[in-house]
Amino acid sequence: MTRPIFVTPQTDDGIVETVQRSDSGCCEVEIRFRLTPRFRASIDGRESEVTFASRSRLARLGIDVTPTGPLETNGDSGLLRARLEAAIPSYGVAEHLPHVVVPGLEIGRLVFCPSERRLDSGAILEAIGAGELQLPAAYSIDETGSFTIRPHRRVYDLARPLSREDVLSIAASSDGRSVLNRMQIARPVDNIVMPPGTGVITSCSMFLHRHYVVLDRESHHLGKHLQAIVLDPVRTRGTRVFLEFTNCSHETIVNPSVSARIYEAVPEAPQVTVFPVSLPESVRDEDRPDQTYRAVLGLFDRLEAGQPGRGYYDRLCAVVDDWAAVAAGELPGRIWHTTPGKEGSIGALRSTRKYEPGDMPVFGTSILADVPSGARATVLLGYFPNLIEHLQICNAATEGRIARVVFRRASYEHGPFLSAKDQARLADYEALGLEVFWCNEDWGHLAMHVFRGLRGYFVEPQMEARFRNALIIAIYGSARPLTDDDVARLRTLLTGLKGLFGENLGILTGGGPGSMQQAATIAHELGILVGANYIETVDQGTNKDADFYQVFQDISRHNRQRWFEIASFQIFCTGGLGTLEEVGLTMTDMKLGVIEMSPVVFFGAHRGRPYWSGLHEQFRAMVDDRRAPDWLDEHVLMTDDPVAVPPFYKRILELG
Known about the structure:
Blueprint lengths: L4 E3 L6 E10 L2 E9 L2 H7 L6 E5 L1 H5 L2 E5 L4 E3 L2 E10 L10 H4 L5 E7 L8 H9 L3 E2 L5 E2 L5 E3 L4 E5 L5 H9 L3 H8 E5 L4 E2 L4 E10 L2 E5 L8 E2 L4 E2 L5 E10 L6 E2 L3 E7 L1 E3 L19 H17 L11 E5 L2 H5 L6 E4 L7 H4 L28 E7 L3 H12 L3 E8 L10 H12 L3 E6 L4 E8 L2 E5 L4 H6 L1 E6 L7 H18 L3 E5 L5 H11 L3 E7 L12 E5 L4 H4 L8 E4 L4 H16 L7 E4 L1 E2 L2 E2 L2 H12 L6 H4 L1 E4 L5 H9 L3
Parallel strand pairs: 25-26, 26-27, 30-31, 30-34, 31-32, 32-33, 34-35, 35-38
Antiparallel strand pairs: 1-22, 2-3, 2-8, 3-7, 4-8, 5-7, 6-7, 9-15, 10-11, 11-21, 12-13, 14-20, 15-19, 16-18, 16-21, 17-19, 23-24, 23-25, 27-28, 28-29, 29-33, 36-37
Helix pairs in contact: 5-6, 13-14
């Protein structure tokens, strides 16, 4: 049965429509929102239960957004007037505000908070017991269900003063959040002290899987929270759930806190991306993915039948307009194979080298120039696109001539593995709104490419929603199998983590044999999602157990590590040199702020003691000599006891 996804009842981000006044440190604006018919119907007569939540990145810049009037609705749009202020002087944003707050800036969303979906104290405790949410440590709950969030003893300073370009990039660019993550540096403190007129950025740990939290901005006696007051399900997971406080009183505030309410998110059936092959109505729903794959594979077979050599220079390109006709056995109207350049097939092979003027091979994607604008057709390719094909595909996508790319083979030279350039091309297709499918014969399915944050994976369409919403734990280990005792311990460990974080859990491995295969098998037996970052190597094969996966050529080994960024936690099982390299990459990424600093577990036994205990001694020596940060010792657990891991997570994450 397909699991529902849980969403906050909200609009998309509203944008600044007009700037009515703009001074250093303060702006007054009108914000326009698009109201869907469903949202408009939900709030009709209940406008008092709608709250405005500013974008988190604005609050993390110390910019407060305060509504100055009621929401005005008119059909499918809403208008809200608001004042923006630089509320945290130490961030130095005031002078840049007039240059950043301009028409078109995305500024925040409207959230519906219906009283009937608010949890009381009993419902909150029940949800915590079921692992449906994890709250910060030392929380307190009153009889109405209002609970208090006490932040970490940690404040976030800037690595350097912000320039106008920095503020504009953070506030407006698609990659603004990652820019801010690199520039905000955590600093531990004994107490958070806010003199009058100042503010701080701090954080807490929280995990929301099917609920959303609304912070109480009106309580000022322990600090006023900025207007980024809604924490969404799935996106609110980890040790850096940011909180932004300002002191509007005349007295110094020590250790600010904020009260909050919890609402049950709206369960929705996930929308499964349907590949446009027309199948008979008699085909059962559970059989449709396999039948669709076979229909597309059969079309590829018919298109490539009788071609001279199926070499790299016989690269198929076909454009499909009518999938009903294709399913009936007809071939698409536009079919072309590569026409080699002056040097024949050798010239066509120069896909990654410098082309000489006038000596470029003509690839089949040239026919895309003849597809009518707005046709939104589907392109079938024998191989994943090379440079020239990529350029022609992007050009066709910008004019709406194509909407979908389907390829059969990842690489002529490397089989089912993609290069770093291929990964960049997939990111371009995502930016252009192109769907990408892989008719993958090695796995025997038609997989779509789905992004989670900055990283994309191949997933069967019916698994997309579960992949997007799962809490992912990376598990590293050797290609050699674990002992029976270690397998039993690993099973107990994954069972305990499922008990801590709930049903919506996934693991991510390197996709090889040995301990990686064993972890995948255990996870599936426990109903846990399984992912893999497969690497082209000579010393190990790949398993085919993954529900979501990405593939990397051997020269992309270090690039592959970036795809482990979707994991919230890392567990290193018994491993060898490859695992040791991954340890170094992971710890360095944490040090540089590329990934969130989270508890790291080294798991396994060797001759009666933890397998990685020698490495732990080295970590301590590095910390003692000030060659590594203190957290390298504090956030690491070396153990062969699976029962010790969930309490370790709760302690380091400061969860209740």
